[in-house]
Amino acid sequence: CDGASLFDIPSLLDPRTKRLSLSNCNIRKLDADILELYADLEYLDLSNNGLEDIGRGMFRYQTMLKILKLNGNRISTIQREAFLGLNSLQARIFLL
């Protein structure tokens, strides 16, 4: 889905999806209810979108996530416990 003209993470993908790349898609806001649908994600690329903040508990259902790319966004606020639940993360959160 890289480069697609999206404003949100799609909610109709296979819930068993393990790799999701949504870079350069104009996504402005994350929705925890949609992310909840993809609890099996191991790789999530949200780089180069228009994200400005990461809300509390945003990734709480992504317990299998190993790589999270958020670089190239306009993130100015990361709320407390935003990354709560990322137990499998291999120290790879890309923010810059």
Automatic annotation (TrEMBL):
Any single Pfam family the record assigns to this protein: LRR_1
Record keyword Cell membrane present: yes
Chief subcellular location: membrane
PROSITE patterns: LRR (PS51450)
GO biological process: monoatomic ion transmembrane transport
Gene Ontology cellular-component terms listed: plasma membrane
Keyword Isomerase listed: no
Keyword entries, A-Z: Cell membrane, Disulfide bond, Ion channel, Ion transport, Membrane, Signal, Transmembrane, Transmembrane helix, Transport
InterPro entries for the chain: KCNMA1_auxiliary (IPR051432), Leu-rich_rpt (IPR001611), LRR_dom_sf (IPR032675)
Coiled-coil ranges per UniProt: none
Membrane-protein topology: Single-pass membrane protein
Cellular compartment(s): Cell membrane
Record's protein name: Toll-like receptor 7
